[in-house]
């Protein structure tokens, strides 16, 4: 009986992994552009696969590439002198990386790292800035996303100060699902602890609470959101505020 149960568990895990492959998706900033702009930007972009932990830019480093995530999620992490840090913003299929370029700044202030692996499209920063004046609709969307990023970072600062870890964890998972465009993704508790700026035991407790409530499933470095509505109820107010602001600025 023990051997049969073990085989059944392994089969379940393998089936879950197979079902957890990234769903098809496209960066929302690039969707439904005017035909001329769509043709122009498509001719400049190259597709890449990003693994978790890959660094896109470091603090003070030049911004060499602009990424438009399709199914991956990037984290913008404010790094402290002691080596620690906390996430201020996630960028997925809702936005782009390197939006500091829009203000004439060519260097990155945060550390930008791939948080959830998946697909992205990119082009050299210089090429992006040279082409942008010829793509007014994309330029407007990028500027609005830049404002949205500032608003999210401000809300996150307040959230990190006021709300408990379980609520923040629920908010983070919901936003990650929105950014990745799928309900399951590769994510370790160590990485999640770094993103929330807490110790791993606090994340273990938070994940356990959410899992026992039937809101998520956690298996071998992967998380699946199984009750989206319940997870929204478990989240702090910040998720709803961020989604409302995104709808207002971005229209999606």
Derived from helix and strand composition plus strand pairing, the structural class reads alpha+beta
Give the beta-strand count: 10
Domain tally: 1
Uncertain segments are: 1-22
Count of alpha/pi helices = 9
Top CATH class: Mainly Beta
Return the string of H and E elements.
Answer: HHEEEEEEEHHHEHHEEHH
The CATH architecture name reads Sandwich
Strand content: 15-25%
Strand line-up of the largest beta sheet: 2-6-4-5
Task: Provide the helix percentage.
Answer: 40-55%
The fourth-level CATH homologous superfamily is Jelly Rolls
Question: How many strands, which pairing sense, and closed or not: the largest β-sheet?
Answer: 4 strands, antiparallel
Radius of gyration: 19 Å
CATH topology: Jelly Rolls
Query: How confident overall, as mean pLDDT?
Result: 89
The rough form would be described as globular
């Amino acid at each position: 009986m023990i051997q049969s149960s073990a085989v059944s568990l392994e089969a379940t895990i393998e089936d879950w992994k197979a079902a957890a492959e990234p769903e098809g998706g496209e960066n929302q900033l690039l969707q439904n552009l005017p035909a001329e702009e769509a043709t122009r930007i498509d001719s400049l972009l190259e597709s890449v696969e990003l693994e978790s932990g890959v660094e896109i830019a470091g603090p003070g480093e030049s911004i060499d590439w602009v990424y438009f995530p399709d199914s991956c999620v990037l984290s913008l992490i404010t790094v402290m002198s002691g080596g620690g840090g906390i996430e201020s913003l996630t960028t997925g299929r809702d936005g782009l990386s390197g939006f500091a370029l829009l203000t004439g700044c060519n260097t990155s202030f945060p550390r930008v790292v791939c948080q959830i692996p998946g697909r992205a499209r990119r082009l050299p920063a210089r090429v992006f800035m040279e082409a942008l004046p010829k793509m007014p609709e994309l330029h407007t969307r990028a500027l609005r996303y830049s404002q949205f990023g500032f608003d999210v970072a401000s809300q996150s600062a307040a959230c990190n100060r006021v709300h408990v870890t379980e609520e923040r964890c629920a908010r983070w998972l919901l936003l990650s699902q929105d950014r990745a465009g799928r309900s399951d993704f590769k994510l370790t508790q160590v990485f999640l602890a770094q993103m929330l700026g807490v110790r791993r035991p606090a994340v273990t407790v938070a994940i356990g609470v959410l899992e026992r409530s039937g809101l998520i499933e956690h298996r071998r470095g992967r998380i699946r959101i199984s009750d989206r509505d319940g997870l929204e109820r478990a989240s702090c107010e910040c998720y709803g505020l961020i989604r409302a602001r995104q709808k207002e600025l971005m229209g999606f």
